[in-house]
Specification:
Length: about 120
């Protein structure tokens, strides 16, 4: 059984920083993709960033090029991180961790709330 547990969300003022963490446990395999998604109130869930087990990264256009968000992972700890700097009110939402295995199964965490006040 695969379990994902996110942490690190909270309330922060605009311009502040947060670091989200997601720990995976269970039969996750050595080859996988870990991703962060977010869902703002009244909007669909969207991809923020993803990273493969070989550290290849991908960022959504909404955060790419700005250098505000950085995804990383620790394969020994089965943990993925999302460092978020210079946060804006539009970054507010529930942030979800997703694990995609090489055999096609996807697993989701319970989500962590990020609220950015103006």
């Amino acid at each position: 059984q695969v379990q994902l547990v996110e942490s690190g969300g909270g309330l922060v003022q605009a311009g502040g920083s947060l670091r989200l963490s997601c720990v995976a446990s269970g039969n996750i395999g050595s080859i996988n993709v870990m991703s962060w998604y977010r869902q703002a109130p009244g909007k669909q869930r969207e991809l923020v960033a993803s990273i493969t087990n070989s550290a290849s990264t991908n960022y959504a256009d909404s955060v790419k090029g700005q250098g505000r968000f950085t995804i990383s992972r620790d394969n020994v700890k089965n943990t993925v991180y999302l460092q978020m700097n210079n946060l804006k009110p539009e970054d507010t939402g529930v942030y979800y961790c997703k694990l995609g295995t090489r055999w096609g199964a996807d697993y989701w965490g319970q989500g962590t709330q990020v609220t950015v006040s103006s």
